[in-house]
């Protein structure tokens, strides 16, 4: 066997290090595996009660995991369908056991199985539909049908298989790009020429690889300051010639209601309405029974309505709907005055037992029913008019945010598509896909919300699929006008100041030429502080992708990567690893950064902090290093051996580098961070906030 020389050995080991740096991807059935591991950990804990059926259950678990692994790697669609069927049979077998961990495992398994079975059937139905169409002697029609079969079996099928069997985050993201290309093709086709099998296939793909990446919950006590409101305002009401004096009473209730159509809630309040009936005498004169009494006396009446008013509101993606309900308790006050010249009539009436008090009593008894009916009717009419006005005003305000008819909402540069609003007596929930407004190539989550996040935390809990959100927002920002004018960024780090905002520790300058950058490099060297340095990063032509790996680390895949860093002072004169140089320029088709992080809440002595470190840096295949002295146009490529040595030094300097940023500028007006959970391998993370102010205007700035 030929022995490797020292140079080749170093080169080989360097390349092995590059390959080993790729972040591992969690399998799509990660949640199922995690549940099995949790069960096994309970069995093996010190002092745990022995499980008499452990051997059988372990064999069962192994069989399940083997079927899931088979599904991920089987090349034939029929074999993959058979594996899905086997997994389904296992889930059916779990249904028959009353053991709680088995029931939890079954739910995780069903959550994995359901969208994949739906997608498999959608593919099968489309292909069967195409093959079942009558033969037409038209080459164009036949070619179109063949394209559909090829699209399902090859274009889409290959992307699905690559996604399931991906071992690294890079492979997973590449397969996702192919899946989104297929999904975008379906969306364009369905928009132009809707076809039921194609629409069903698109919906099945969305259900698996384009799921909502935002689920925001706020409990009743948190939303109460914003939603609890008076429904009655004291003051006069002029209507149909009458003047009613309304006095608002105390609030009697506020609460959230169960609704899947929107955020439903109610407000209740007591009120008193007093209305002098100024034409009561005329009404009596027009009544056959009351006419005689009106000749003898002049009557006045005032209605009094002690009511409870409840307004139910439902906030939907298409606007606000209001509905009033009333509970009336109507009474009236009556008075009578003698009519001049009618003394003889009153005398004869009194002889028959109808004195003034008796006549007033009978008038009151005859009128109170009509008065109550009129109060109820007028209140309903007035309420309908006021509700319509209020709805119009509120919806005009909401139109700044809700995109009516599109199930979407926008706020500044942010857009939520597939918007859902729902409520329960305990909380309100907002869901959808968080994206950048008016941007292309936006994505949703490729993994469902973890079962552990099914129950919201108290206060505000925001469940985020971090990878898809970061990917969409960065893509959108790079398409914006401010970013299009930027070609590079020069970043100059400064001496750290304890608890200073991150902006105080760095200086960022866009579009710096090489001469300016070289001056910054020399100025940083003169400080002789390892924390002070200058780098220059070129804006990539393709936006980066973000995802979580199997360890729960955040992975950034930077395409068209180019960064310039200072050459260590001891190497500027050249030597074994290249000619004299001031700057290293590192380029790569795709570089991978792996980052761990933790957000700690604010304390009495410290602001909110983002702490973590760079766990890994992989420049990827095709990475190159150039040396630059005074003229960037005369960059010199390092030899492979020198590149490996320099790249190893760069990696060693980056890997393990701590991140400790005080987020002093994060203003959560009226709220404070309670907890940020670790990043899940599925890409999900939960941010829990608690209210610190009762102000309805509390929010994030």
Descriptive tags:
10-stranded antiparallel β-sheet, alpha+beta, 3 domains, 8-stranded antiparallel β-sheet, 18 helices, 701 residues
What is the secondary structure topology, with strand pairs?
Layout (H helix, E strand, L loop, with lengths): L5 H15 L9 H15 L9 H20 L3 H19 L4 H32 L7 H27 L3 H24 L3 H14 L4 E6 H8 L7 E5 L2 E16 L5 E15 L2 H6 L4 H7 E20 L2 E9 L2 E9 L4 H9 L4 H43 L3 E2 L4 E4 L2 E11 L2 E10 L23 E6 H14 L1 H4 L3 E6 L8 H4 E5 L3 H14 L6 E5 L6 E4 L5 E13 L16 E18 L8 E10 L5 E5 L7 E2 L2 H15 L3 E5 L5 E2 L1 E6 L7 E8 L7 E2 L1
Helix pairs in contact: 1-18, 2-3, 2-5, 3-4, 3-6, 4-5, 5-6, 5-8, 6-7, 7-8
Keywords: Signal
Protein name: DUF3352 domain-containing protein
User: How many strands?
Assistant: 26
**Proportion of helical residues:** 40-55%
Mean pLDDT: 89
The parts where pLDDT drops under 50 for at least 5 residues are 1-20
This entry's quaternary arrangement is: single chain
Secondary-structure content class: alpha+beta
Major sheet: size, sense and barrel closure?
10 strands, antiparallel
CA-CA gap between termini = 67 Å
Strand content: 25-35%
Helix count? 18
**Quick one: overall form?**
elongated
- How many domains is the backbone divided into? 3
Rounded to an integer in angstroms, the radius of gyration calculated over CA atoms is: 37 Å
């Amino acid at each position: 066997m030929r022995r490797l020389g020292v140079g080749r050995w170093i080169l080989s080991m360097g390349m092995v290090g590059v390959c080993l740096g790729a972040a591992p991807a969690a399998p799509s059935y990660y949640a199922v595996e995690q549940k099995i591991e949790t069960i096994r950990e309970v069995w093996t804990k010190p002092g745990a009660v022995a499980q008499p059926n452990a051997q059988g259950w372990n064999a069962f678990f192994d069989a399940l995991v083997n079927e899931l692994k088979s599904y991920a790697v089987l090349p034939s669609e029929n074999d993959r369908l058979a594996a899905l069927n086997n997994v389904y049979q296992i889930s059916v077998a779990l249904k028959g056991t009353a053991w709680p961990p088995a029931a939890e495992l079954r739910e995780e398994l069903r959550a994995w199985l359901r969208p994949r079975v739906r997608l498999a059937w959608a593919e099968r139905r489309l292909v069967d539909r195409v093959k079942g169409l009558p033969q037409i002697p038209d080459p164009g029609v036949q070619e179109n049908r063949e394209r559909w079969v090829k699209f399902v079996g090859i274009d889409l099928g290959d992307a699905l298989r690559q996604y399931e069997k991906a071992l690294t985050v890079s492979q997973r993201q590449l397969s996702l790009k192919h899946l989104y290309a297929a999904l975008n093709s379906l969306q364009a086709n369905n928009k132009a020429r809707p076809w039921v099998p194609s629409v069903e296939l698109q919906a099945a793909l969305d259900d698996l690889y384009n799921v909502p990446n935002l689920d925001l919950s706020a409990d009743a006590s948190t939303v109460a300051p914003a939603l609890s409101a008076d429904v009655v305002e004291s003051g006069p009401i002029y209507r149909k010639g009458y003047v009613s004096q309304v006095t608002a009473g105390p609030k009697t209730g506020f609460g959230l209601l169960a609704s899947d159509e929107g955020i439903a809630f109610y407000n209740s309040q007591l009120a008193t309405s007093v209305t002098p009936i100024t034409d009561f005498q005329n009404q009596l004169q027009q009544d056959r029974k009351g006419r005689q009494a009106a000749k003898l006396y002049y009557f006045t009446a005032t209605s009094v309505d002690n009511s409870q008013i409840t307004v139910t509101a439902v906030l939907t993606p298409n606007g606000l709907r209001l509905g009033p309900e009333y509970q009336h308790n109507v009474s009236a006050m009556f008075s009578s005055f003698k009519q001049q010249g009618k003394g003889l009539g009153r005398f004869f009436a009194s002889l028959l037992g109808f004195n003034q008090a008796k006549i007033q009593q009978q008038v009151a008894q005859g009128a109170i029913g009509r008065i109550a009916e009129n109060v109820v009717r007028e209140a309903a009419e007035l309420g309908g008019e006021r509700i319509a006005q209020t709805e119009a005003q509120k919806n005009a305000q909401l139109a700044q945010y809700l995109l009516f008819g599109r199930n979407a909402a926008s706020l500044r540069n942010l857009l939520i598509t597939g918007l859902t609003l729902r409520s329960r007596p305990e909380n309100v929930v907002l869901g959808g896909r968080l994206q950048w407004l008016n941007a292309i190539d936006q994505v949703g989550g490729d993994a469902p919300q973890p079962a552990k996040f099914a129950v919201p935390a108290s206060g505000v809990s925001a469940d985020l699929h971090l990878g898809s959100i970061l990917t969409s927002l960065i893509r959108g920002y790079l398409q914006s006008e401010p970013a299009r004018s930027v070609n590079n960024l020069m970043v100059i780090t400064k001496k750290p100041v304890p608890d200073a905002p991150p902006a105080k520790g760095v200086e960022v300058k866009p579009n710096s030429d090489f001469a300016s950058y070289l001056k910054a490099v020399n100025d940083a060297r003169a400080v002789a502080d390892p924390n002070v340095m200058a780098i220059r990063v070129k804006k990539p032509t393709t936006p980066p992708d973000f995802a979580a790996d199997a360890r729960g680390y955040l992975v950034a895949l930077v395409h068209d990567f180019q960064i310039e860093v200072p050459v260590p002072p001891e190497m500027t004169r050249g030597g074994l690893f290249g000619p004299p140089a001031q700057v290293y320029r590192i380029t790569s088709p795709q570089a991978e950064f792996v980052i761990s992080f933790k957000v700690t809440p604010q304390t009495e002595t410290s602001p909110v902090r983002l702490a973590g470190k760079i766990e890994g840096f992989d420049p990827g295949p095709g990475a190159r290093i150039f040396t630059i002295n005074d003229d960037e146009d005369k960059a010199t490529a390092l030899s492979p051996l020198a590149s490996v040595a320099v790249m190893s030094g760069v990696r060693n300097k980056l890997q393990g580098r701590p991140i400790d940023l005080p987020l002093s500028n994060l203003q959560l007006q009226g709220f404070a961070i309670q907890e940020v959970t670790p990043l899940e391998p599925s890409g999900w993370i939960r941010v829990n906030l608690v209210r610190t102010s009762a102000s309805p205007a509390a929010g994030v700035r």
